[in-house]
Predict the 3D structure of the following.
Amino acid sequence: MAAREPGEEEEVKLIKTWSSPYALRAVWALKLKGIPYESIDEDLTHKSDILLHHNPVHKKVPVLLHHGRSICESLVIIEYIEETWSHNPPRLLPEDPLQRAETRFWAKFVDDKALPSIWQAFSKEGKEQEQGLSETAEHFRLLEAELKKKKKRLFFGGEEIGIVDIALGWVVNLVPLFERILGVKFLDEERHPALLEWRQRMSDVDVVKESWPPRDKLVAKWTAIRERCGLRVIWALKLKGIPYDSIDEDLANKSDLLLQYNPVHKKVPVLIHNGKPVCESLVILEYIDEAWSQNPPRLLPRDPVQRASARFWAKFADEKVRYLVLLT
Amino acid sequence: MAEEENRVILHGFWGSPFVKRVEMALKLKGIPYEYVEEDLRNKSPALLTHNPVTKKVPVLIHNGKPVSESLVIIEYIDEAWKTTGPRLLPDDPYKRARVRFWADFLHRQVMEAMLVILKTDGEAQEKAVKELEEKLVVLEGGLKEEGVFGDNGGISAGMLEIVMCWCFGAYDLGEEVLGVKIVDWEKKAPLVYSWLQGIREIPVVQEIAPPKEKMVATLRFIRQSALKASNPTVPSS
């Protein structure tokens, strides 16, 4: 399975999107191992038949196609690549079973803990965001400690990049972006010297350097995601036929107006009605419904039990949508 | 130290399905081990030292070195004791990838859905039941296509069967707690259902299954605490 027969073409294809950090992991693994592959780029708003056929369970990228068979889930793909092209350096996982287990533990940690918490910090508001922020701080603390334990502190994989470094690729390009959009710092020299050195080292790796998605496009995409909470308010105002003025914020450079009206969270959206501010998108929706109760349609039912139910489902939907956009 | 040679210790909790997975793997392989029962409200210093990151069970200590996360532990057991007992994962990389994929699906998606069903009622529970049914149908379709039933790369009880067992194995206890049959298994996922019955009959499973009454009481307690803690205005049907 490992070495190519002379003259035989190993047909490897990778279904991905331009921005998915998960798909990027597979790209790096293939490039590091020097495995030629064909890229199939997806538009996740119009999923192709190929994607739906090869990943009917999750309908997500990345999907690796090899010998016509499909492998899904980025970490599973990396292990598959490692096992199938075991003679191609570099090793993405250590040989020793105990070290392999430790490596797998940290790779899972990234996907089960670190990514969900930073996503929560990025996409939520209020208390939930605070929780995301503090959990993310804790996760970076643990990662810093783990990196410091390595003798040479070069990569999580040792002297060369390995599966954990690949899994953490988003720290290199997305974390600075999130920091800019949110106006917070996740990594700093004082608490994360090793991680910051690692980040620099990762950026210098050739296959990493040459594979980044276009930065401007990424900034636009993630800013729009952060601001999608504002969309609900716009819809509510439009549904009710309420005229409004829109003030667009540059979240990297917040206006005095925003800071004045939302000193607590310093976030959008903020509705200003008769000079009074209302913050938090779901709170704003309720306010609009009550302040313009004569304007149809009703956004919430009149009956208290049904109102409670509606509130419950609004929050529930908020939670379920969480992962939807991150994985495109 | 001679006593450390191949000494295997498992830190666990009697009611945790994640711990049971590891126990089953060890027993299937015929690996002798010492078991340390943890009080999860008062975790031992050893546990906290060996798993400082998540501080959870199960933790396997082999020759004094710790391994955490049940699925990681199972792969470790398979690799460290490669020639002892049956293989827990197939040799072929593609089949391994599929086992990992489905194990992850069960671990992350199905178990979460089942927990939600246990902890909610009314509309929220109905929704969770529907989701579980959808996942079972997906599982049935996916596994059928790969011919997993009966031929898992030549393995009769491996990682996938282990995860299946401790994901669904106690479904009848769950039904006892909820007082109703939650999912119509036989109709929605007949192959998965009969595969599960076969797995439950593996002698090792009977050996390590927690006492039924204790499990039911614990599930009941989890449910009641969750319902009390949840939003009091959530409507119940």
Strands of chain A lie at 12-16, 38-41, 63-66, 69-72, 270-273, 276-279. The two ends of chain A are 32 Å apart (CA to CA).
